[in-house]
Design brief:
By secondary structure, the protein is mainly alpha-helical. The chain is built from eight helices and two strands. The radius of gyration is 17 Å and the shape is globular. The two termini are about 25 Å apart. The mean pLDDT is about 90.
Length: about 170
Protein backbone atom coordinates (compact mmCIF):
# COMPACT_ATOMS: atom_id res chain seq x y z
CA UNK A 1 0.00 0.00 0.00
CA UNK A 2 1.12 3.54 -0.77
CA UNK A 3 2.52 4.97 2.49
CA UNK A 4 1.07 8.40 1.66
CA UNK A 5 -2.41 6.90 1.30
CA UNK A 6 -2.01 5.02 4.59
CA UNK A 7 -0.91 8.26 6.29
CA UNK A 8 -3.87 10.11 4.77
CA UNK A 9 -6.20 7.40 6.12
CA UNK A 10 -4.62 7.61 9.56
CA UNK A 11 -4.96 11.41 9.57
CA UNK A 12 -8.73 11.24 9.12
CA UNK A 13 -9.33 8.16 11.32
CA UNK A 14 -10.14 10.28 14.38
CA UNK A 15 -11.16 7.31 16.54
CA UNK A 16 -7.96 5.40 15.78
CA UNK A 17 -9.99 2.19 15.34
CA UNK A 18 -8.82 1.57 11.78
CA UNK A 19 -12.20 2.50 10.28
CA UNK A 20 -13.43 5.76 8.75
CA UNK A 21 -17.07 6.81 8.55
CA UNK A 22 -18.81 9.12 6.09
CA UNK A 23 -17.79 12.34 7.86
CA UNK A 24 -14.16 11.23 7.98
CA UNK A 25 -14.16 10.19 4.32
CA UNK A 26 -15.79 13.50 3.42
CA UNK A 27 -12.96 15.28 5.26
CA UNK A 28 -10.38 13.17 3.40
CA UNK A 29 -11.98 14.01 0.07
CA UNK A 30 -12.02 17.71 0.94
CA UNK A 31 -8.32 17.47 1.79
CA UNK A 32 -7.88 16.10 -1.75
CA UNK A 33 -9.87 18.97 -3.26
CA UNK A 34 -13.14 17.07 -3.83
CA UNK A 35 -16.38 18.31 -2.31
CA UNK A 36 -19.19 15.79 -2.00
CA UNK A 37 -22.32 15.83 0.12
CA UNK A 38 -22.54 13.45 3.06
CA UNK A 39 -25.18 11.50 1.08
CA UNK A 40 -22.75 11.07 -1.82
CA UNK A 41 -19.97 9.98 0.54
CA UNK A 42 -22.29 7.48 2.20
CA UNK A 43 -23.04 6.02 -1.25
CA UNK A 44 -19.30 5.72 -1.88
CA UNK A 45 -18.80 3.95 1.42
CA UNK A 46 -21.66 1.53 0.75
CA UNK A 47 -20.10 0.73 -2.63
CA UNK A 48 -16.69 -0.17 -1.15
CA UNK A 49 -17.58 -1.42 2.35
CA UNK A 50 -17.37 -5.22 2.39
CA UNK A 51 -18.71 -5.63 5.93
CA UNK A 52 -21.93 -3.60 5.80
CA UNK A 53 -20.83 -1.44 8.75
CA UNK A 54 -20.97 1.76 6.68
CA UNK A 55 -17.31 2.45 7.31
CA UNK A 56 -14.09 1.69 5.46
CA UNK A 57 -10.90 0.04 6.61
CA UNK A 58 -7.63 1.12 5.03
CA UNK A 59 -7.85 -1.45 2.20
CA UNK A 60 -11.39 -0.41 1.30
CA UNK A 61 -10.33 3.24 1.53
CA UNK A 62 -7.51 2.45 -0.91
CA UNK A 63 -9.98 0.83 -3.34
CA UNK A 64 -12.22 3.91 -3.11
CA UNK A 65 -9.18 6.09 -3.75
CA UNK A 66 -8.29 4.00 -6.81
CA UNK A 67 -11.85 4.30 -8.11
CA UNK A 68 -11.82 8.08 -7.65
CA UNK A 69 -8.43 8.38 -9.35
CA UNK A 70 -9.72 6.32 -12.29
CA UNK A 71 -12.78 8.58 -12.57
CA UNK A 72 -10.57 11.67 -12.35
CA UNK A 73 -8.14 10.38 -14.99
CA UNK A 74 -10.96 9.36 -17.37
CA UNK A 75 -12.68 12.72 -16.90
CA UNK A 76 -9.62 14.82 -17.62
CA UNK A 77 -8.47 12.59 -20.49
CA UNK A 78 -11.66 13.42 -22.37
CA UNK A 79 -12.21 17.04 -21.32
CA UNK A 80 -10.83 18.12 -24.71
CA UNK A 81 -11.52 21.84 -24.35
CA UNK A 82 -10.35 21.90 -20.69
CA UNK A 83 -13.66 23.48 -19.67
CA UNK A 84 -14.02 21.39 -16.52
CA UNK A 85 -17.10 19.80 -18.09
CA UNK A 86 -17.74 16.80 -20.30
CA UNK A 87 -20.33 16.97 -23.02
CA UNK A 88 -22.30 13.79 -23.66
CA UNK A 89 -19.89 12.53 -26.33
CA UNK A 90 -16.85 13.10 -24.11
CA UNK A 91 -18.65 11.50 -21.14
CA UNK A 92 -19.52 8.40 -23.15
CA UNK A 93 -15.89 8.03 -24.25
CA UNK A 94 -14.66 8.57 -20.66
CA UNK A 95 -17.08 5.93 -19.39
CA UNK A 96 -15.89 3.48 -22.03
CA UNK A 97 -12.29 4.08 -20.90
CA UNK A 98 -13.41 3.41 -17.34
CA UNK A 99 -14.88 0.09 -18.48
CA UNK A 100 -18.55 1.01 -18.87
CA UNK A 101 -19.76 0.45 -22.42
CA UNK A 102 -23.43 1.31 -22.72
CA UNK A 103 -25.80 1.43 -25.65
CA UNK A 104 -27.24 4.85 -26.54
CA UNK A 105 -30.56 4.55 -24.65
CA UNK A 106 -28.82 3.34 -21.46
CA UNK A 107 -26.14 6.02 -21.73
CA UNK A 108 -28.69 8.79 -22.38
CA UNK A 109 -30.75 7.70 -19.37
CA UNK A 110 -27.82 7.61 -16.93
CA UNK A 111 -26.25 10.80 -18.33
CA UNK A 112 -29.51 12.74 -18.07
CA UNK A 113 -30.03 11.47 -14.51
CA UNK A 114 -26.69 12.99 -13.52
CA UNK A 115 -26.98 16.21 -15.54
CA UNK A 116 -28.07 18.72 -12.88
CA UNK A 117 -28.97 21.39 -15.42
CA UNK A 118 -31.68 19.16 -16.83
CA UNK A 119 -30.44 18.40 -20.31
CA UNK A 120 -27.72 21.05 -20.52
CA UNK A 121 -25.66 18.19 -21.99
CA UNK A 122 -22.60 18.59 -19.82
CA UNK A 123 -21.42 17.40 -16.45
CA UNK A 124 -18.54 18.34 -14.16
CA UNK A 125 -16.17 16.04 -12.30
CA UNK A 126 -18.31 15.46 -9.19
CA UNK A 127 -21.31 14.58 -11.38
CA UNK A 128 -19.13 12.25 -13.44
CA UNK A 129 -17.98 10.53 -10.25
CA UNK A 130 -21.63 10.11 -9.18
CA UNK A 131 -22.42 8.67 -12.61
CA UNK A 132 -19.49 6.21 -12.40
CA UNK A 133 -20.52 5.26 -8.87
CA UNK A 134 -24.05 4.53 -10.10
CA UNK A 135 -22.66 2.29 -12.81
CA UNK A 136 -20.19 0.62 -10.42
CA UNK A 137 -22.94 -0.28 -7.96
CA UNK A 138 -25.28 -1.35 -10.79
CA UNK A 139 -22.59 -3.66 -12.17
CA UNK A 140 -22.00 -5.13 -8.72
CA UNK A 141 -25.72 -5.69 -8.09
CA UNK A 142 -26.18 -7.17 -11.57
CA UNK A 143 -23.23 -9.51 -11.12
CA UNK A 144 -24.85 -10.92 -7.98
CA UNK A 145 -27.68 -12.23 -10.19
CA UNK A 146 -25.47 -13.26 -13.12
CA UNK A 147 -23.01 -15.82 -11.69
CA UNK A 148 -22.29 -17.32 -15.14
CA UNK A 149 -21.53 -13.82 -16.52
CA UNK A 150 -23.98 -14.21 -19.42
CA UNK A 151 -24.96 -10.54 -19.41
CA UNK A 152 -28.63 -11.38 -18.89
CA UNK A 153 -30.69 -11.98 -15.76
CA UNK A 154 -34.27 -12.73 -14.86
CA UNK A 155 -35.46 -11.13 -11.64
CA UNK A 156 -38.57 -11.39 -9.52
CA UNK A 157 -39.93 -8.08 -8.26
CA UNK A 158 -38.43 -8.75 -4.81
CA UNK A 159 -35.02 -9.41 -6.36
CA UNK A 160 -35.31 -6.21 -8.42
CA UNK A 161 -36.13 -4.18 -5.30
CA UNK A 162 -33.21 -5.81 -3.48
CA UNK A 163 -30.84 -4.98 -6.36
CA UNK A 164 -32.18 -1.43 -6.69
CA UNK A 165 -31.66 -0.83 -2.97
CA UNK A 166 -27.94 -1.42 -3.50
CA UNK A 167 -27.55 1.21 -6.22
CA UNK A 168 -25.86 4.53 -5.55
Amino acid sequence: MDPNLAAWFKAVDTSGEGLVDAKEVQKALEMGGLKFSLTDVDSMIRAFDNTGKRSLNVEEFARLHGFLMSCNNSFYSFDADRSGHLNSTEAQQALAQAGFRLDKPAFDAIFNKHDPNNRASNIELTEFVRLCLSLQTAARAFAAFDPQRTGKVTLSFDQFVYAASHLA
